[in-house]
Specification:
- By secondary structure, the chain is α+β, with helices and mostly antiparallel strands.
- It contains 14 helices and 14 strands.
- The chain has helices at 22-49, 61-84, 89-110, 119-132, 136-159, 167-217, 237-242, 257-268, 307-348, 355-382, 394-408, 431-448, 480-483, 501-511; strands at 9-11, 19-21, 222-226, 232-235, 274-278, 284-293, 298-306, 390-393, 416-420, 426-429, 456-463, 466-472, 515-520, 526-531.
- The radius of gyration is 44 Å and the shape is rod-shaped.
- 27% of the residues are buried.
Length: 542
């Protein structure tokens, strides 16, 4: 049964506020016990090995050997108690110091009193008491040792054991005990403070390290740390995502041979620190190399940035300016358009109009409505609010959305089929923007996707830990010629469409760091796929 090595504190019962952390305390106690065992073995061994009576036990050899043997036996018993934790730390430490004072005093008396020099061993015990327990206990042990030395002198004086006794030496030895106790207490207190500061700094460093790891892992830019041999030491999630990898590669060649060659070129010529990388997934990655000196090893950092993201930010800025301009133009067009529409309506009410003229007024009304729809879409785009993203669980959200959509548009619930994986999918997106995107896609599927040929499929699943939504209809698909212009504003193949629905949907997706794309399924069915941010792995956009 092991004690708590970081929280447990052992205070002295006579002290206030002083304590030693458990691991350090037991380690010090083991050192002191080892010293006792060595000292006891030396007493017994030297007594039996040497015949010179001037060494040990000169006054009373029987008292010396009994005391030495008792000292050894008590030390062994203490070792057993310490190994099995049969006694508490405080009790164990106090017993060791008390038995030291008693037995070493007897050994000193048996060896000739203070003049034998054995009293110096008591100073070690007093110092140990200050380090192991400290506080008032250290002073208590110093006082006890001083009284024991003085008592030994009194007994020797009254029994005339020695030729001469020295109370002055006993007093000076007692004073040295108090001095040693005080110094050892101060030293132990300072050591404790240093240890506490070191532990606080350690915890701070650990917290900062965890924070740095979290920030690096959730950066939008890819970070790869390599050594000179191109062995990858670390790579964040964005780097794996940009490189279209699911596990950490071993070296740069596993990502791109061209990147590895560019890294070698940069090592030879540090000025060539930027390279444009074309990966297999057709994405363009802006790569930058920089040295990363550390205390142990010289490493290198490779920063990967998606060119598409940079272009998207530039495009967003342009579109914002264009949106303000088109909003102003739309307001100016709306007034004369209203007059034209009103005049056409009044003209159509004239009973003397011929059928040909009535047909012309209908054309005026229809195209006025169409232009008004275009203006409404433009104004909606220019009034677009910032994204207020939140964590959405896709399965219940899509289920609720389909119920509301079929009710609002008076569509049979069998017209749609929702397919979701069993694993929980959580997206990070503005729910209002997602609803608007889904409205545009589902209305297009109902209009062009031949719902009478079978249900329109809404499928939610994950690709490389990114949640995706697919809308698959039964339409013939869009030809390759038109696919490149599909998300451009005002592009439409319908005579009644405005050509802004898909454009607005993609803009809203990009505003939420999502991606809307189109492709033909294996059975030649139209499919719109919406890649969303994983709410469990949100990246930091800087």
């Amino acid at each position: 049964m092991q004690p708590n090595t970081t929280e447990t504190i052992f205070p002295c019962p006579f002290s206030k506020g002083y304590g030693i952390p458990s691991q350090q305390a037991w380690s010090l106690l083991k050192v002191f016990l080892a010293y006792r065992l060595i000292l006891a073995c030396l007493f017994v061994t030297l007594f039996y090995s040497y015949t010179d009576s001037s060494l040990l036990g000169t006054h009373d050899s029987r008292l010396f050997i009994y005391s030495s043997q008792s000292y050894l036996i008590l030390s062994v018993i203490s070792g057993i108690c310490m190994a099995w934790r049969l006694t508490s730390y405080t009790t164990q430490a106090q017993l060791l110091i008390l038995t030291d004072i008693l037995i070493l005093t007897l050994i000193m008396h048996a060896s000739g009193g203070i003049s034998s020099g054995m009293g110096a061993l008591l100073a070690v015990s007093i110092a140990a008491g200050g380090l192991l327990i400290g506080g008032r206990c250290a002073m208590f042990f110093a006082a006890l040792a001083s009284l024991a030395v003085l008592a030994e002198q009194v007994v020797a004086d009254y029994s005339h054991s020695f030729y001469a006794t020295s109370y002055a030496n006993a007093g000076m030895l007692g004073a040295s005990f108090f001095t040693i106790a005080l110094l050892s207490y101060i030293l132990a207190k300072r050591s404790e403070q240093i240890l506490q500061i070191a532990n606080q700094q350690k915890q701070t460093i650990i917290k900062l390290e965890d924070l740095n790891k979290y920030i690096i892992q959730h950066l939008q830019s890819g970070i790869i740390i390599v050594n000179k041999q191109q062995a990858i030491q670390m790579a964040n999630q964005s780097a794996l995502r940009l490189a279209n990898l699911s596990v950490l590669p071993v070296n740069l060649n596993d990502i791109s041979a061209y990147l590895a060659a560019a890294f070698r070129t940069w090592l030879a010529d540090p000025d060539q620190n930027i390279v444009l990388l074309q990966l297999q997934n057709q994405s363009e990655i802006h790569s930058r190399f920089m040295p990363l000196p550390t205390g142990q090893e010289f490493l290198y950092m490779i920063i990967l940035e998606d060119i598409a993201l940079y272009n998207q930010q530039v495009q967003q800025s342009k579109l914002a300016s264009l949106g303000r301009l088109t909003a102003s133009i739309a307001h100016e067009i709306r007034n004369p358009l209203g007059a034209i529409s009103h005049a056409g309506q009044l003209l159509s009410e004239n009973p003397s109009l011929s059928l040909q003229d009535r047909r012309l007024t209908e054309i005026i009304q229809n195209h006025s409505l169409r232009v008004n729809h275009i203006i409404e879409d433009i104004l909606q785009l220019s009034r677009r609010t910032d994204s207020r993203r939140e964590k959405l669980r896709l399965k219940p959200w899509l289920d609720n959305y389909l119920k509301n959509f079929t009710l609002e548009h008076a569509v049979n619930s069998d017209a749609f089929e929702l397919l979701c994986t069993d694993e929980p999918l959580c997206a990070f997106i503005d729910s209002g923007h997602l609803r608007q995107i889904m409205d545009n896609l589902c209305r297009n599927a109902l209009k062009y996707g031949k719902p009478e040929a079978g249900p329109i499929i809404l499928r939610a699943f994950a690709i490389q830990q990114a949640p995706c939504i697919e809308i698959i209809d039964n339409g013939p698909g869009i030809c390759n010629e038109h696919q490149s212009h599909l998300f451009e504003p005002f592009f439409t193949t319908s005579s009644t469409g405005t050509g802004l629905g898909l454009y607005i949907s993609r803009e809203l997706a990009e505003l939420n760091q999502a991606k809307l794309s189109y492709y033909l399924s294996d059975d030649k069915r139209s499919c719109f796929r919406l890649f969303l941010l994983n709410a469990e792995q949100t990246i930091i956009d800087i």
